[in-house]
Amino acid sequence: RSNELLKEYILSKRSNSEIYSELEDAANFTDFAILSTEKKSSDNYFVYAWVIESTYAFDTGVLSEQSGSSDPCRFELISENNTFKVVNADIPRDGGYYSEDINKLFPEYLREKIYNVHDDGTLNELRDSILDEAKDYFGIK
Q: Over the stretch 105-124, which tens digit does the pLDDT of each residue have?
């Protein structure tokens, strides 16, 4: 259930409609890999995940990626009435702040994993998953 909850949350926070309103045959796709979870208190949790999002367009028989992002994220969840609610999401800032924010947002045991998602197969699996979703959506075999 937490996977579905996070996917719903990520999709609800996306606002690409203004940017891609002129593209009739475009759609947004997202996937993520949970890296770890931590119980902070009796009803408060952190879920650490790598999130990838892409917008694909299908025009004249060609599927092309229009935009995308790929970031480590820290989600804060609270437990309410036997379910979870996402109350906050944080990602590291770009540039010179990236390492500082990684150190602030993620526990030490996760930092090596975060820096290795490009090499350990995590990112490739997520990209492949999104591409498969896009192909299914546009009816490409």
A: 999 999 999 999 999 999 99
Handedness of CA 102, 104, 106, 107 (dihedral sign): positive
Contact between 137 and 129 under an 8 Å Cβ cutoff? The reply is: no
Q: Is the pTM of this model over 0.70?
A: yes
Q: Estimate to the nearest angstrom the gap between the alpha carbon of 62 and the chain centroid.
A: 25
Residue with tokens 């902070």: 40
Phi and psi (nearest 5°) for 111? -60, -40
The vertex-77 CA angle with 72 and 80, nearest 5°, equals: 165
3-state secondary structure of 64: strand
Contact (CB, 8 A) for 37 and 46: yes
On the CB side of 1, CA atoms within 13 Å amount to 7
CB 61 within 8 Å of CB 86: no
Let me know: does 58 contact 25? Beta carbons within 8 Å.
Answer: yes
User: Which two tokens mark 78?
Assistant: 């609270």
